[in-house]
Amino acid sequence: QVRLVESGGGLVQSGGSLRLSCAAPGSTLARYAIGWFRQAPGKEREGVSWIASDGRTEYADSVKGRFTISRDNAKDTVYLQMNNLQPEDTAVYYCAADFSQGPPPTQEYLYDYWGQGTQVTVSS
After folding, report:
1. What is the pLDDT of residues 30-84, one digit of tens each?
2. In the chain, N or C terminus with fewer CB closer than 10 Å?
3. 3-class SS at 10?
């Protein structure tokens, strides 16, 4: 069992930045692919960015060039640096873990462990 804890959300103005963290107290994330997903009010949850255990990354088209995912295995933490935030980025952001190697899976159903989410609100 892996418990994931997100942090770093908040309120920011359009064009601003936030860095989200996904930690796993008591667990080692090094062999897990980690995905960031988000859910806006009234919308389905969607994938944002993914990082494989070997560091390979993937991004949704909507965030390419603005978001950067990274991992620090020594700290068992994955980060999502979000720059040039826009109101449409407003959502609850979740991190999820999948015990896998190879390219990071982007399909939500492949992820076994989920955090509780952190709210990101971007004002115009």
Report:
1. 999 999 999 999 999 999 999 999 999 999 999 999 999 999 999 999 999 999 9
2. N
3. strand
Where on the phi/psi map is residue 45: left (φ > 0), alpha (ψ -120 to 50), or beta? beta
What's the number of CA atoms in the CB half-sphere (13 Å) around residue 124? 2
Encoding tokens for residue 44? 């389905």
Q: Which two tokens stand for residue 64?
A: 């390419």
User: Residue holding tokens 């640096």?
Assistant: 81
Report the pLDDT averaged over residues 100-121.
94
1 pLDDT band, cuts 50/70/90, is confident
d(CA 123, CA 89): 10
Helical segments of 1-40, H only: none
Question: How far apart (Å, rounded) are the C-alpha atoms in residues 112 and 4?
Answer: 11
73 burial via Cβ count (<10 Å: 0-12, 13-18, 19+): middle
CB 33 within 8 A of CB 57: no
Strand partners, 33: 98
